[in-house]
Design a protein that fits this description.
The chain has two domains: about 220 residues, 3-Layer(aba) Sandwich (Rossmann fold), CATH 3.40.50; about 100 residues, UDP-galactose 4-epimerase, domain 1. The chain has 13 helices and 14 strands. Strands 3-2-1-4-5-7-11 form a seven-stranded parallel β-sheet, with helices on both faces. It has a three-stranded mixed β-sheet with strand order 8-10-12. A two-stranded parallel sheet has the order 6-14. Strand 1, helix 1 and strand 2 form a beta-alpha-beta unit. Helix 1 crosses helix 8, helix 4 packs parallel to helix 5 and helix 10 packs across helix 13. The longest helix has 26 residues.
Length: about 350
């Protein structure tokens, strides 16, 4: 890999927020593996796991509420942070149900983190010989910023206006613009990546409307029931209608790191707003069920409980089923194989999260 895709040498410490979440944990693990000479600070509202790393010069875990000034300041104390991965947030369903909490976490805490990062940059990265070196700031946004689409839509980001149709989408887009402004002003080297739906996620179901996409694989393979909220039965045409844009866990984490490494000028040539939609592949809920049968057996279908949820459907109706990957691929981002990528993600889940054992 060329030097242009290596983390700049001035970055000695990076902060990962939302490090207790699934993607955050996988990101921390991968950073530790790829960059043993870089210190990782991992923070979340609950102290993130240390992944077996007890050397605080390699990984420092902090329980912190980023909305509280004292706790936010404590993260920076005694550190020289040259990079940020801002992954924390309330998921789509939770943001819609709890309007105030969604705005507090998904906008206010990000605004405070950016302000703190800016002040930190002025303190440590403003000397004359470091003018061109500003802390790199990656914000994880979402394709939920797009509205006026259907699951059958194919979005071209060059021509499609951003008009969110959910509180989550609004909140993400608001922060995208603030992140862009901090970059435009030269305060930080900012870039935003809009994540695809990550699958297959381990752990408990989340408040995301998309949670069922992983749930229909995750729970049945562990002998547990899973609710499919967009159909009433296996014969329901909704299983074919709700085209879904996804990416494997490995590829999404790889692309988040790649976003950190690309040069600012290369990004701006592609996107003046410094925003890139991460590449994905298209699947349907029926393909998910077919994969469940292929890798878990026909009997696992009995664990799928079909129960349409109008609240989930209302959100899913505002998601496009496909996006143009051209810009991301020009910048060197990776994409799962269109034919085999989803099944590979299922196999990865079985091997890495279930130890190769199906209940």
């Amino acid at each position: 890999m060329s030097d242009s895709f290596e983390i700049p040498s001035f970055v000695e410490t990076v902060l990962v927020t939302g490090a207790g979440g699934f993607v955050g944990q996988k990101l921390v693990i991968q950073l530790l593996k790829l960059y043993p000479n870089i210190k990782i600070i991992a923070t979340d509202i609950i102290e993130p796991p240390n992944h077996g790393v007890t050397d605080s010069s390699k990984l420092k875990t902090i329980k912190a509420d980023l909305g509280k000034p004292n706790e936010l300041a404590g993260i920076f104390e005694g550190e020289k942070i040259g990079g940020f991965f801002a992954l924390h947030g309330i998921m789509s369903g939770g943001s819609e149900i709890n309007f105030e909490l969604g705005y507090s976490v998904n906008i206010d805490s990000h605004r405070k983190l950016l302000e703190a990062a800016h002040k930190h940059s002025e303190k440590y990265f403003s000397s004359s010989n470091l003018n061109e070196f500003k802390p790199i700031y990656v914000f994880a946004s979402s394709l939920a910023v797009y509205g006026a689409v259907t699951p059958q839509s194919i979005v071209n980001p060059k021509t499609k206006p951003v008009i969110p149709e959910s509180s989550y989408g609004v909140q993400k887009h608001v922060v995208e613009m603030i992140v862009y402004d901090y970059g435009r002003k030269g305060y930080l080297d900012t870039r935003t990546v809009r994540l695809v739906t990550v699958t297959v996620r381990p752990g408990a179901p989340s408040s995301a409307a998309s949670s069922y996409i992983s749930g229909m694989i995750r729970e049945p393979l562990q002998g547990k029931e899973s609710i499919c909220p967009i159909a009433n039965s296996i014969e329901d045409n909704s299983l074919d209608y709700y085209l879904t844009w996804v990416g494997s866990t490995k590829n999404v984490v790889k692309n988040i790191i790649h976003a950190f490494k690309i040069k600012q000028n290369d990004l701006i040539k592609i996107s003046q707003e410094r925003i890139i939609n991460l590449p994905g592949i298209q699947i349907t809920p029926r393909q998910i069920l077919n994969a469940l049968v292929k890798y878990g057996g026909e009997d696992k279908l009995k664990l799928i409980k079909f129960d349409k949820d109008p609240k989930v459907i209302a959100i899913c109706d505002t998601w496009a089923g496909a996006f143009d990957n051209t810009d991301a691929l020009k910048l060197g981002f990776s994409i799962d194989d269109e034919k085999t990528g989803y099944e590979q993600a299922v196999q990865d889940f079985i091997q890495e999260e279930l130890g190769g054992k199906i209940a």
